[in-house]
Amino acid sequence: MFDDIQTRDFGPDFNKFKITYGNALEYIADTLFDTRTYTSASTTQLSFFSGQQTDDLTNLALGNMLPDKQGFLVMSIRFLPKVQPRSLARAAAAAVQTGPTNDIQQLTATGRLSFNFLNKDYGTYPLWMLPAGGGVQSMMSAEGATADPGGIVDFANNGFPDARNMYVLEQPLFLPPMTKLGVVARWPTALTLASGNTALVVLFDGLMVRPVQ
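User: That's the sequence. What structure does it adopt?
Assistant: Structure tokens below.
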């Protein structure tokens, strides 16, 4: 049995979001995430949460919206490029060293992530502001056993690998049920990545809001 949506009291945090819920709500710590592939030397825009995936690359069942009677309170945002360690020729002095570290630097230095829900914009953020909140910290090593240029192995993560290293919203953003999510990453020019085509993940940490079962 559901109360009338005009009279149901959700508390002061939800007064402007009148949604049909059950008589009692439960709040569950959760993370929404979606993965898209950046095509090296080609991509300038990627839309996240824009269609249902057939594997574990996303956990939003309907692809680009929450199910009926289920909302989500976004409290923080994370961005993770899924690069892999690789061996590359060592760059000459004063030249840029290609590799995963440089890939992440390129992706985050010029990229930006924007949000649009209910036909309203809710912010645009430089990707360098959105750390991954976990993973492997940057590391680089060079072998000198062979003649120049030798080899380089490097790896990098977007931000210090701490579970709480994430961008926390000053004002949480509530996503209503059955509302399409407009989450788009953009770059001014296509980037050539040493890692080639690279999977990128956007994650929303917060609280899942739903009727008590």
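The first strand starts at residue 25 and ends at 38.
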